[in-house]
Amino acid sequence: MSTHINAPKGAIAERILLPGDPLRAKFIAETFLEDAKCYNQVRGMLGFTGTYKGIPVSVQGTGMGQPSISIYATELFKDYEVQTAIRVGTTGAIQKDIKLRDTIIVNSACTDSAMQKTRFGDMHYAPTANFNLVKTADSIAQEMGIDYTVGSVTSCDMFYDPKESWKTWAKYGVLGMEMESAELFTLAAEFNRKALAIMTVSDHIVLGGQTTAEERQLTFTNMIKLALETIIKF
């Protein structure tokens, strides 16, 4: 057991999906995994382990923001020896050629987080996904025929940003804004593990508009299938 995950050794698979919302973790487990069993309910942050195409896979809610995912990813890597982690979630698009419901395979994550400043001081670390995971997800997404783009996002500390910093990130080619990927990539590097993030575009910060609940369900399903097909290769 760890401080925030009430699971015995061996209860969590080496491969794991990390949605922010614990109810999404429950949905993934019940919809896509066979013989899924709940291993964690501490603070309502649900975690499950089952199998996908015969391969053990876990799914763990992480909460919102980098401090929250940092807690769960650290304990998963350090205490439960998770080897491969894919964050699955939503993002707000900041490029005009990215459409609502598109999928973004995240190969790097910028950030304004004070957590990186605490770690690196005046140095500037570049949080990056595992290349082989990116390459595999790219190939599978082509096979699935879904609308997707490979590129960078920004992991922000503030959801409601009064400075509208997205405009600067957009100028430098960042595709979307979210709140967790940079910390996951950084921790994967620290613990020598593999990590990736796959995002569904749920709203458009530049053009306006957001997906309906039904549209989010469909595109979320595509994203999870892509993530699962990718993670079982490792």
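(the above was protein one; protein two follows)
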Amino acid sequence: MIVTMLISLYTSRVVLQVLGVEDFGIYHSVGGVVGMFAFVNGALATGSSRFLTAELGTGDFEKLKRTFSTVLTVHATLAVLFAIVLETVGMWFLNNKLIIPVERMNAAKFLLHLSALSSLMSITQVPYSASIVSHEKMGIYAYTSITDAVLKLLIVYTLTISPFDKLKFYAFLLFVVNMGMLLFYRFYCLRKFPESHYQFVVDKKIMKSILGFSGWGILGSIARMLQMQGSTVLINMFFNPSVVAARAVANQVNSASLQFINNFRTAVNPQIIKRYAANEKESSKKLQLETAKLAYYIMLVLAFPICLVARPLLQLWLGQVPEHSVAFLQVTIATSLIDVFDISFLSALWAKGRIKENALVSPFVLFAAFPIAYVMFRCGMPPVSICWAFLVSIVVMGMIVKPMLIIKYVDYTWSEIIPVFLTCGKVTLAAIPIPLFFYIWLNPTLVSDWLRFLIFVPISICCVVVSVWLIGLDKNMRNAIMSFVKKAFYK
């Protein structure tokens, strides 16, 4: 994760410099259109992973084989429908709603066509990726992620010496790399997991369960789609591509940070689901609550220093800092810190297989931020207003709505959940004073960006780590960590 994050941040800097602010913004605007339709695939992917993991937990191999083949059939059908929608509705939206310079419209259309093809392949890949996660073969992700990052680094070098249209060529090379990684995952699953050998079997009972679970997931994902991709498209409806580029820059730093949390949750969710499926409910619940705190600590280690050094970080990383990107980054990273609770508690609902209520409530809470931001833009408010609207909605979802749902449907209690919030709050408050003192004391007009970066980052990380160690971890957890470190050191 560290290697891929560093490579990702470096390649983003070079891509911005090579493409320029305008083409960089266009690339992410078209990506936003694709993402607006991709939420369906994301919901089905969640359902696929959940059911494959549950069948592994029960140990019924024949049902596991039928589940995999049924899931793949559903995704193949979805892939064709998605490509058709993207080439029709997506093209209409591109031509009529986005603010794109006339001379770059052909490049934008090329991106959309390539994205449609890439999405078609990616959708059929979901069952294979879900199998790897369900079997908890996380080591394969380390090798493939680093390979993927290195290949994208080579793409950046190729882009700097290419005589072709930079935007089109960049999209094409990314497409080639993505297809290569997809084929590798498919080959790996066919070699390692017997159930991944497809047979044209459509188990109607399994399909009904998956579609029912995923159908409610789609409804919940609509709100997430509007929050992430829809916000980018909305910004492009009111502001030029340079503002979209600023939003994209903030999202890339945020995504690099969130990747730690996503990989952490990907690793732990199968155990939560398997334990619940095996009727080890108390063990599943304990793991859920402990990992919710650990996920928050991981994100805090990243989020706190990023907020303090947002401007020097972007200046050192990009060289040229798009206007509004600092504000976008600070509010977005703060939102992701709170979002950890929403993401973590959702795992309990997945384990139970009860996401209907979450799907009914989430759109009302998250979607409310979208029209509010639209009205704010119409009234002349600055672009960062949309980030504040989503921050409030995420606080409501992660700290009020999700806890109420798992209390009602998965037998949690407030006495179990509130200590999670209190402990995380104490760790945060204990970590703030010293870095904040240096932040106020060091005058940015007298201290260079490099020096501010070198001072704030280690101080912030040290303060967070010490606070987590002294306040956030109980005695058993500290002993377990010390034992692990000693074994690793003397091995």
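Reviewer note on protein two: The longest helix spans residues 2-58.
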